Amino acid sequence: MSLYGNLLSSDQFQCSICLDIFNNPSSTPCGHSFCVTCINQYWDGAKVCQCPLCKRTFQKRPDLQINRTLREITEQFRSMSGGGAEGGGVAKEKKGVKGRQCAMPNELLDELTRKLPRPHASMPITSEDQGGEPSPGNPVAASSSVPVQSPLSTMIGAGGPPQVQPRPAESYGRRRFTVSGAADSHNIPLCDIHHRGIMIFCRTDGECICPECEAEVHPDHDTVTVEAAWVDKQVQLKEMEAQNQEMIQQRLVKIEDIRSSVSQLELVVERATMGSVCMFSALTAALERAQAELMNVMQANRQTAANRADALIRQLELEVEQLRRRESVLAQLSTTDDHLQGVKNFATVTAPLPTNDWSGVSITCDLGINAIYRSLAGEVEKFQEQLRGIIETGFTESSSSTSSLETSPARPQPRMRRVQEFAVDVTLDCNTAHPRLLVSDDMKSVRCGDRHQLLPDNIERFDRVVCVLGREAITSGRHYWEVQVGGKTDWDLGVARQSINRKGKIDVTPNNGYWFLSLRDKNKYAFRTEPSTDVHLNLRPNKIGIFVDFDRGQVSFYNVDAKIHIYTFNDTFTECIFPFFSPCTNRSGKNDGPLVITPVDMSE
């Protein structure tokens, strides 16, 4: 069988409308080819344009162009099959001479080789392209993954038409041949226009195209194979993945920065709150003290002036009485008829009386309060200076202290005296004391021993935290007590609710029912919140006062000796609470001093 018989048939160049070889073939958008005249006449007068073969409907009549490549191949086929036979000759060939052999000149073979599609280097010709189906009688078709050379490539490599050995008829299947040649439908998608495999990527337009598109539409563009383009894209993908990962890391770092800023803001708010509370509390205390002193001084001066006025009035009344008696004697003497007696008594009656000069005597209106006002003005100036410093630099650890407006220890604050009015008798509950704690017989003091005592492990007793509760429950109202802490390096004082956990490790926070002030390492004061709130004190307290207003949910702490408010915590109490004491561990004798509940002394 000749090469023509193996490769080409008139069916592949036949218009399905006129059943003749293509005359000026044209391809529709769906990929089927017809004579341009036939398809135009087929659509003339039709309301809807459809493909005669696949019945695909086109909303708008396609603007058809002549497929020049197919026309050249058709002309070549005509010249090889008998010199340009038209419709009748082709019909005869279809009926009787289909698959006949013919000679092929070398120059026509070269032209046809150039026109026909060639397999891509990365696409081996499979059994489908060879026209065979997998079967025991066709070993080439049975292995679709083995590359097979086409007869045309064999002929080109030999330099001329080879002698092709005929194969049995059953080994030849109908070859799938599109307008632009054979293609592997399993691996490569086809071009919608030319029905050739899309194996080329145009870098200029960024499109995947077939060889015909490259020749017709993209002749001068920068093109590479799809595989090479994909290698480049993979490199770009890796770069984008690295950039994306870097952006993710940057944003994670920013999230941590923001969270850190929020934590820092909380610390700043706590410091500012503490500083402002201390500052305004000190100013309020100074104002209250000044007001109280003013009232006392004015009252004392008023009383002094009243007493002086009374004394002066009594003295004047005595002199008035003496002057009136003398007036009576003078009146009698002036009316006497005894001239001798009148002369003798005249010297006695007219002698000067022992009276005072009252011209410069008066009661002053000076209340003696200028010194108090001057002192208060000095305190206000300090307050203003502190305000200016806060405006410029904000609250710092030094500005949050109470140094600038601390009250004098010798002058008690009225506010301090008011909370002392609610003093209660507090004793320790030894049933709650940790085994290392030593409670005094009067239940008023507690310290930490060196070893555990043999005590019953009842449910009320703390077994890990060295602390003890007070015996008196607080369920309402206001309560105040004082504890001696002088000489200790560590301690905890405050209140705790009844339902707290007393076994094992305890998280001592308000959420868990603990409200207390702590001292660590002699000078680190803090209130146990989450996180802990640092409390800055310039004067180290020797005695701590604890005030509880159950109804308002307040726990306040005072420096009793300096009469200074230290800190107030606000919360809501939902159950009864008890006084809380912890002398902390003795630290090998460095903190072995006791906590002592002392009587409240309200004297000046």
Task: Describe the structure in your own words.
The chain has 604 residues and is α+β, with helices and mostly antiparallel strands. It has helices at residues 3-7, 36-43, 68-81, 87-97, 106-115, 139-142, 151-158, 211-216, 226-334, 339-349, 370-393, 414-420; strands at residues 25-27, 33-35, 49-50, 57-58, 200-202, 207-209, 223-225, 437-439, 445-448, 468-469, 478-484, 491-497, 514-520, 524-527, 533-535, 543-549, 554-559, 564-570, 577-582, 595-598. The relative contact order is 0.06.
Helix content: 25-40%
The largest sheet has its strands arranged as 8-9-20-11-16-17-18
Instruction: Kindly name the structural category.
Output: alpha+beta
Number of helices: 12
Largest sheet properties? 7 strands, antiparallel
Name some characteristics of this structure.
604 residues; 7-stranded antiparallel beta sheet; elongated; disordered N terminus; alpha+beta; 6-stranded antiparallel beta sheet; 20 strands
